[in-house]
């Protein structure tokens, strides 16, 4: 393989060119992996060559990731800790060419607290106990730990160059940070110290799917890059990469069933989902879904996987017991992300192109009427649901706002204005 130009977004030749041609033509958003690569990748490459960003600016504008200038007061004053059991929403926020912030939002009042300076980032993760948020600072190749008790940032933790994804073990003891060139850095959360980066072989040159960890915390599954058709298991006990699992299509999203028996990889260019038996490390036949699948969520009972198809404006349910795809469920224009309530009864799909959210009844696999986010608060890019399942919070990156949705009534509340470019979201309790 010829090494791609690291100053340009790269996603596997024909597929990327097709996606970008649709975007330039003003058609609906059809390849959100391209959007993610441009949004996250270009930010990291500012240090490499400014002209690469200028050349792609027009494409970024078309796919609605150019955002308004950051507004409102800036503060690094710690906010008081929330009462025990009260969920808090945390959202990363950046201004074009400016600093990065983590914004806490009280779910009791739906108001944003003072911003916490953390650097430029589109990736965050929270420990299972909710005590610490880890934020990637892509410009300095570090991870910033934030205490949720005081909402203060700790000392930066150095990781491998150009980090872009982070995941934490179920016991909360280790955070794994994936960087370009397939370097996986473990961070001990008890001491906030980084171990030696684990080299993944075969190495990828560029962006990749976010890693996924088995429920027992023993294995991390890594995709070397979005143009590599293998999945690599990494043993947490020894920090060693195992034998690559050959796939028929490069994965762009990875998910694991709650029982830890199956890994599912989503391939956007091929429109397929591949099941992998964890016990044997073998890939099964690809499951055909819709056009440009971009996200997957599995119900808490482990019975159904829901795949978001951006190009088809549908969601495909997959019966996990049989690995059979059911009839596609029609949703809004250019669906992008999906989240399922803790009780597993409803899946919420954000539709980037129509600025709506579609609720899906998982018992019947039927879509309810779309929830409108408002004329001025469109282009949703992320969603998270509170632990009690009562509220879904939708990030509107292009509008600088977070929209709360009451799940009992499926109605959108007043927007929480944060300005800038909110992107990644987590909720702690």
Biggest sheet layout: 5 strands, antiparallel
Q: CATH topology of the domain at 118-246, which one?
A: Methylamine Dehydrogenase, Chain H
CATH superfamily of the domain at 118-246: YVTN repeat-like/Quinoprotein amine dehydrogenase
- Integer average pLDDT: 83
Globally, the shape reads: globular
CATH architecture of the domain at 118-246: 7 Propeller
State which percent range the strand residues make up.
35-45%
* Helix percentage: under 10%
Radius of gyration: 20 Å
Low-confidence stretches: 1-30, 32-83
Q: List how many beta strands DSSP finds.
A: 40
Write the layout of secondary structure elements.
Blueprint: H1 14-24, H2 32-44, H3 50-62, E1 88-94, E2 100-106, E3 111-112, E4 116-117, E5 124-126, E6 132-137, E7 142-147, E8 152-153, E9 157-158, E10 163-168, E11 174-179, E12 183-188, E13 193-194, E14 198-199, E15 212-213, E16 219-222, E17 230-235, E18 240-241, E19 245-246, E20 253-256, E21 262-267, E22 272-277, E23 282-283, E24 287-288, E25 293-298, E26 304-309, E27 314-319, E28 324-325, E29 329-330, E30 335-340, E31 346-351, E32 356-361, E33 366-367, E34 371-372, E35 380-385, E36 391-396, E37 401-406, E38 411-412, E39 416-417, E40 421-428
Antiparallel strand pairs: 1-2, 1-40, 2-3, 2-4, 5-6, 6-7, 7-8, 7-9, 10-11, 11-12, 12-13, 12-14, 15-16, 16-17, 17-18, 17-19, 20-21, 21-22, 22-23, 22-24, 25-26, 26-27, 27-28, 27-29, 30-31, 31-32, 32-33, 32-34, 35-36, 36-37, 37-38, 37-39
Helix pairs in contact: 2-3
Structural notes for this entry:
There is one protein chain. The chain is built from three helices and 40 strands. The longest helix has 13 residues, at 32-44. Helix 2 (32-44) packs antiparallel against helix 3 (50-62). Strand 5 (124-126) and strand 6 (132-137) form a beta hairpin. The strands form eight sheets. Strands 1, 2, 3, 4 and 40 form a five-stranded antiparallel beta sheet that branches. Strands 5, 6, 7, 8 and 9 form a five-stranded antiparallel beta sheet that branches. The chain has 429 residues and is mostly beta strands. The model is unreliable at 1-30 and 32-83 (pLDDT under 50). Among the domains are: 14-62, no CATH class; 118-246, Methylamine Dehydrogenase, Chain H (7 Propeller).
């Amino acid at each position: 393989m010829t090494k791609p130009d690291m100053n340009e977004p790269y996603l596997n030749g024909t597929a990327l060119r097709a996606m970008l041609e649709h975007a330039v033509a003003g058609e609906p958003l059809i390849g959100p992996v391209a959007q993610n690569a441009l949004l996250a990748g270009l930010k990291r490459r500012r240090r490499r060559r400014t002209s690469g960003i200028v050349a792609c600016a027009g494409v970024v504008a078309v796919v609605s990731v150019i955002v308004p200038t950051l507004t409102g007061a800036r503060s690094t004053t710690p906010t008081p800790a929330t009462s025990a059991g009260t969920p808090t929403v945390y959202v990363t926020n950046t201004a074009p060419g400016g600093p990065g912030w983590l914004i806490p939002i009280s779910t009791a009042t739906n108001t944003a607290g003072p911003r916490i300076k953390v650097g430029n980032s589109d990736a965050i993760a929270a420990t299972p106990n909710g005590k610490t948020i880890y934020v990637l600072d892509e410009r300095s190749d570090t991870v910033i730990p934030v205490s949720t008790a005081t909402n203060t940032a700790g000392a930066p933790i150095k990781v491998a160059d150009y980090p872009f994804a982070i995941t934490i073990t179920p016991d909360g003891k280790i955070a794994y940070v994936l960087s370009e060139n397939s370097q996986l850095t473990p961070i001990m959360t008890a001491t906030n110290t980084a171990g030696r980066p684990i080299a993944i072989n075969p190495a990828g040159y560029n962006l990749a799917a976010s890693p996924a960890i088995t429920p027992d915390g023993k294995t991390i599954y890594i995709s070397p890059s979005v143009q590599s058709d293998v999945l690599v298991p990494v043993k947490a006990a020894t920090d060693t990469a195992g034998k690559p699992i050959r796939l028929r299509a490069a994965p762009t999203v990875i998910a694991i069933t709650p029982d830890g028996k199956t890994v599912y990889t989503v391939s956007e260019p091929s429109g397929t989902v591949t099941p992998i038996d964890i016990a044997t490390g073998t890939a099964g036949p690809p499951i055909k879904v819709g056009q440009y699948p971009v996200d997957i969520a599995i119900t808490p009972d482990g019975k159904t996987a829901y795949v978001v198809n951006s190009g088809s404006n549908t969601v495909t349910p997959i019966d996990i017991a049989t690995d059979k795809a059911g009839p596609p469920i029609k949703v809004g224009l250019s669906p992008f992300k999906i989240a399922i309530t803790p009780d597993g009864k409803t899946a919420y799909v954000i539709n980037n192109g129509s600025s709506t959210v579609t609720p899906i009844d998982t018992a019947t696999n039927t879509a309810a009427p779309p929830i409108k986010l408002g004329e001025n608060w469109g282009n949703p890019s992320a969603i998270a649901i509170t632990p009690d399942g009562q509220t879904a919070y939708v990030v509107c990156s292009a509008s600088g706002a977070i929209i709360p949705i009451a799940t009992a009534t499926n109605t959108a509340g007043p927007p929480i204005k944060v300005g800038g470019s909110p992107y990644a979201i987590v909720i702690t309790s």
